[in-house]
UniProtKB/TrEMBL annotation:
Homodimer. Residues 33-376 form the Orn/DAP/Arg decarboxylase 2 C-terminal domain. Pathway: Amino-acid biosynthesis; L-lysine biosynthesis via DAP pathway; L-lysine from DL-2,6-diaminopimelate: step 1/1. Its cofactor is pyridoxal 5'-phosphate. SUPFAM superfamilies: Alanine racemase C-terminal domain-like, PLP-binding barrel. This is Diaminopimelate decarboxylase. PROSITE patterns: ODR_DC_2_2. The modification N6-(pyridoxal phosphate)lysine is found at residue 63. The active site is at 350 (proton donor). Substrate binds at residues 282, 318, 322, 351, 378. Specifically catalyzes the decarboxylation of meso-diaminopimelate (meso-DAP) to L-lysine. It comes from the Bacteria.
Amino acid sequence: MTVSPHFEFRDGVLHAEDLPLTNLAEQFGTPLYVYSRQALHDAWEAYRTAARDRDVLVCFGMKANSNLAVLNEFRKLGSGFDIVSGGELARVLAIGGDASKIVFSGVGKQVWEMQAALKAGVKCFNVESEAELVRLSEVAQQSGAVARISLRVNPDVDAQTHPYISTGLKENKFGIAIETAVAVYQHAAALPNIEIVGVDCHIGSQITEISPYLDALDKLIVLIKSLADKGIELKHLDLGGGIGIRYTDETLLSPTVLLDKVFQSLETHGLSHLQLVLEPGRSLVGNSGVLLTTVEYLKHSEAKNFAIVDAAMNDLLRPTLYDAWHSVEAVVPRENTANDTVYDIVGPICESGDWLARDRSLHLEQGDVLAIMSAGAYAFTMASQYNTRPRAAEIMVDGLNAHVVRPRETLESLFAMETPLD
Ligand code: LLP
């Protein structure tokens, strides 16, 4: 049975590329994030193929997975980066990333972050409010630099996804209402040290339908034309990230289908000279990783059966935060499914919300290793040290080789910066 092309069962054992996950769990311990290098390349290839020879800049939405090894794979493949903090900028610069391929998003950019981004020479600031625009102009003047900007407009479309990851509706904190965008662009045009280069939107995450994108695009095209009428010409159009991945049986929106439609529309409106920028996060990394965990105890209560594992909500927050579904596979599944029991897979943290999966039919014994699938995106990056739990190691598998791309944190490191008073 194939779970994904890079994580498949061979001789009854789940592998990452050519390595049995049992070996990795034994060698490095659990919980353990395991990534497939080839999966990253294949996910990138889907965008490259979709772009064909058109002017498309893919800026990896690195909040999904910002391990330097992951970033460096994408850098080598030609990716740019969508950053949302000075910290993310520092990571890109640390791997020698090209600042002219960085777009800087986020509603709350601080002065020091603007200064650092100007110094690095980022391609564009995606400005999310008029107040930010004014501050950026001031910071740019003080820095003796010109800030290239897009306005992130809020097109008020429903991305039809979870409310916490839906960002393009009027009631969301993101972006500038599309109705006021022309006026804000005119303000920008009048501000010193600001150069208008594009328009941006990001309507949400884990989107599986094309219609929200096309609705947003239609609105942006109207805006681009009104701007042209006022003498404001743009160089690029940024449609954000958001393409969903398969956690269970979702039907998928392929980058090729999306890009063909987008370019068709741009051509119809005489706008095919615009560069298209995309900011995909999840779809580049989500199914490139799994989280391995070991069953510590099985506990059978009157109402429920619990498999208590050594990973927890601090390692994978998505289930409890979004009610998200992650498939769970026994790394060495038992053949006799007649003895399957319905389990909630829970962690050791002192919270009832500490669960990773619910109502899963599995035949388990203490000591079994489980793989929580689709843990390449928003897993490690959302991890914490709650309950003084060291963040787990990250491994990158490349064929038959396993590279430690971040070791397990040591206990001492968790409190090394703290100082008790006398
Ligand atoms: N660009 C911007 C401005 C964003 O805010 C995001 C994600 C992306 C790009 C990348 O979106 P993606 O292609 O990954 O959908 N923690 C949540 C997802 C939060 C997404 C936030 N913004 C989760 O685990 O589902």
